[in-house]
# Entry
Amino acid sequence: MELRRLALSFALATTALTAPALSLGSAHAAGTLIWGMPAETDTLDPHATGGWSTYQITYQIFEGLVKEDLTKPDEPTPPLVPGLAKAWEISDDGQTYTFHLREGVKFHDGTPFDAVAVKFNFDRFWNESSPDFYKKAKAFVIAYTKWIKRVDVVDPMTVKVTLNASNYQWLRQGLQSYGQPLMISPASVKQFGNDGVALHPVGTGPFKFVQRDQGVKTELERNDDYWGAKAKLDRVIFRPLQDPATRVNALENNEVQMITTPPWDEIDRLVSEGFKLSTNKNVPYINYIHLNFKNPALQDVRVRKAINMAIDRAGIAKEIMHGTGKPEYGMLSPGTDAYDPSFKGYSYDPEGAKKLLADAGVRDLKLVFELPQYGTGELVETWIQRDLKKVGIDVELRKYEWVTYLGKWAGGMAADVSMNEIGWGMSTPAWIGIVTRCDSAPPGGINSGFYCNKEVDKLLDQAIVTRDPVAAKDLYQKVNRIVMDDAAYGPIDDDLQPILLSSKVKGFVNPPEDWYDLSTVTVE
Amino acid sequence: MGAFITRRLVGVLPVIVGVSIVIFLLIQLAPGDAATVLLGPQATEAARQELRHTLGLDQALPVQYFAWLVRTLSGDFGRSVATQLPVAALVLPRFVNTLILTLGSLLLAIVIGYSVGLFAALRAHSLFDRTSMAVALLAGSAPPFWLGLILVLLFAIQLRWLPVSGMQDIAGNGGALDVMRHLVLPAVTTALGPAAIIARIVRSSVIEALGRPHVRVARAKGLTRATLIKRHVILNALPPVVTITGLQLGYLLGGALLTEVVFAWPGLGSLLYDSITARDLPVIQATTLLIALAFVLANIVVDMINAALDPRLREA
# Structure
């Protein structure tokens, strides 16, 4: 009898536990966007971090002197617009940048933004002789600061930056830099210390930091004193949800209203259920293969061409990525202003590939393909393995956990490895140099397959000092043609940055960039 | 009993030190380091070296280990490499969250396992016995993450009764009841496997106890069934059941780490996952240390309960 009572009370207890859920609607405050992100982000100090998912948060809090206009989804590259500098001049030799600062701007802590604040920030991430210098920041912002010779305060609202060589891509490089040269309130750094910026990020942006609960959420609220168009949302909450299925479930259950990196297989179903799929065809992000020039099997350009011709990129984009990727045949992505839509590269031609291999006298080719294991079953790589098998190339897939892989990739391939892969890019076309230059080879560079063509380096040197965008574009396109004539890489696809949104979300713009301007968004 | 507890507690120390050394070495053996992860693809080798130096990663391994040990013994767990936050502030709240999930699951596993097992034993070979044991076999064999997804589909997506992620309503700030609601699915997911195993052990243990001579004698003396079961069956059936339950605690702790990822429960599991991905050594060390400590202490508690139940064990 007693036992029965025990079981009954247990049943009642569980019912009591679930019952309140029945009355649960989504009791979210009006105008709150909750974004389910695929990973937890690192420190919110923009000078001392590099991950783009972190920048998706810090971009809302901080601003730089120059900004990108992220509200124009159809531009190939986001236009440069005034940020905390209302105007700037670049000297004819491309070495002196003079910034005229915006008046009346205040940091979230109420302190004024002026030339002294700008100088403080440059001192922090660049000037080793300054007491405000922060070593870790320099390590991150290096791609931007390595060009800087001196920084001068001309007057309270004017700052002059002198470079040690001509560089007309420097502003773009600043916007794409791994650590971001954004303006932090000097008072906040002095109050909380360099480590303290992590939990006290104080900028000038359209959203203010409220709180961070590591692993749970980072919460921002609207900055009502913002100098520009004020954000529409009351709050934005960023939630790390590592598991793709959890992200999808949370979206379906209205626990988040936006998810990035949705699992490809689920997209069609969710769209049919009324969720909105947002993509952008100009995101500067290419998934590509490095072919190893130290690998004996790949010395003959015909073999490298055959590999390129054997891969059915359109099939990958359609069957595996469900239209969230676009076949790519070159190493300049549509997200750069140097993109060449007329460039054809190697189209899918397995018969041609077989013939090239036969001409090269290659039989029973066995290649090793190194790749990261990222939990989606490595479908694209398995597809490539199958395609290459069709032309008589046996591919062994060697999978590594992400950090292990990153180390191997950045260290350059061993001679017995034929290919590895990565996906990234930048909206400056100078990116192609980071990937292809001889002096970008490891160690110290990420030209993981040790490709080296002096002609390419010469053209890239020319391009960076060419002020006329049309002339620079021509040079970058030439570089792309040479690199692909050498079949040094195997570009696969451009990522279209699929984002799934609840139907309640309005005004979201998916820009040709990996971070977004959330000030235009509303949630019903 | 005092000597018994002291003996067991002293045994904890070498285990904890051993675990910390093994974890420390394992992370060093894995290729790739924090500097590479943090600085990303554009960094120069000089910048990486500089960051390694700033983080103290360029020192000899024993130096790094002892520096860590001395700091930890003085109560300073250091700062997270990735987030710059103090490790203690990161790890302790997450540890509490994992404990909530683990203990919630344990409670559920015990309540379900003991009641089903006891019922089944008392009505051995009845329909209830057969059905419950078949279901227990299924639940015990099902992988928890699969079970979790099925439960989510049913109770959250279809019925909309329960939330699928996190520990409380993210936009509001729910109290204890909100946490309980969020706890239901992850706790049930984690608890079902262990509950099934406990149920089967309880059943066989009780059936065995029912057949013992002293129980027959007691029954012959005319004790009521309820008193008989309370006084003579349950107590005698308990020791093996407690041991199995203790073992399940370890399983629950491990299972909770997996369940945490599926339900975005902000416990040690997801923290460990993030910190391994970032090669964030101070956080990895502190997290694994806490897990090891919890595991060892849980085992001691089980031993103590068994010793209390069975005096013979105290002498061993």
